[in-house]
Amino acid sequence: MTTSESRDMSRPSGRSIQLSATGQQARIIQDEHDDGWVLEVGGMIQSHVDLENPQRIRYEYLSRIAHVLDASWPARLPLSLLHLGAGALTLPRYLQVTRPGSAQIVIELERELTSLVVSEMPLPEGTDLEVIVGDARTMSLELAEQAKCFDAIILDIYTGLGEAEHLSEESFYAELLAMLNPSGVLLVNIGDDAGLPYFARQARLLESAATDAGFSGAWTLVDAGLLERRSAGNLILAAGDGMSVADPDELRSALLARGPHPAAVLDPAATAEWGRAST
């Protein structure tokens, strides 16, 4: 389905729905800290949206993803994007405002979730967003068979140890890299516990998939303190032709400057070294 609904109501209703895949309850509620709204699933906050200013992204890891997109293409240029995992559609909203006319596809396992999000928090006017319900790997392979390619693919699904392991395999990363347009970028959100053992493994797997595909390897974007202390949190891995630049120092400096601060940006050599040191 193509999603462009609007709703003549000033604020989400707070109604709760049950998600069919997990059986959890989901609702949109007022954020406790600002004028934004948050998606709550199973009693846990998942996403934040500022309906008045979709360019404001509260969660740092999503900001780092947005900054890679901003740094990789000229401003306002429409892009073709595939989002694996929907949440509250924070990034699709951001892309529509910053790059109007972008063609976006979301693959979401929970059939009811995106309908709730869009009905309670309408998307910016003109948003071109196709929602596909199903398993991220199965449905992305169907898109690949249709010769669909993307400027950016964003994988933002929890895949910790024992969770959705088919979405954290080297072969899946290779499949996604093959779906990128020239100069395309694959961005993967990795949530990990203290010590970051899972992140280190995923960095090695993406590095291998990227180098096998002819790219320079995997980049890391993260809070500098989190990386230094090896604290639990979210880290971003990035790979693809768009990250395989002639001057990694220039790209690293540009991404560091964009923050959020304190920021750490590891180029492929540094990411590989960090991954090897964590074995």
Structure, described:
With 279 residues, the protein is of the alpha/beta class. The protein has one domain (50-277): Vaccinia Virus protein VP39 (Rossmann fold, 3-Layer(aba) Sandwich). It has 9 helices and 13 strands. It has a 9-stranded mixed sheet with strand order 1-8-7-6-9-10-12-11-13, with helices on both faces. Strand 3 and strand 4 (37-41) form a beta hairpin. Helix 6 (197-212) packs across helix 9. The protein is globular, with a radius of gyration of 18 Å. It starts with a strand and ends with a helix. The model is unreliable at 1-9 (pLDDT under 50).
Task: Name some characteristics of this structure.
279 residues; alpha/beta; Rossmann fold; 9-stranded mixed beta sheet; 4-stranded antiparallel beta sheet; 9 helices; 13 strands; 33% helix; 27% strand; globular
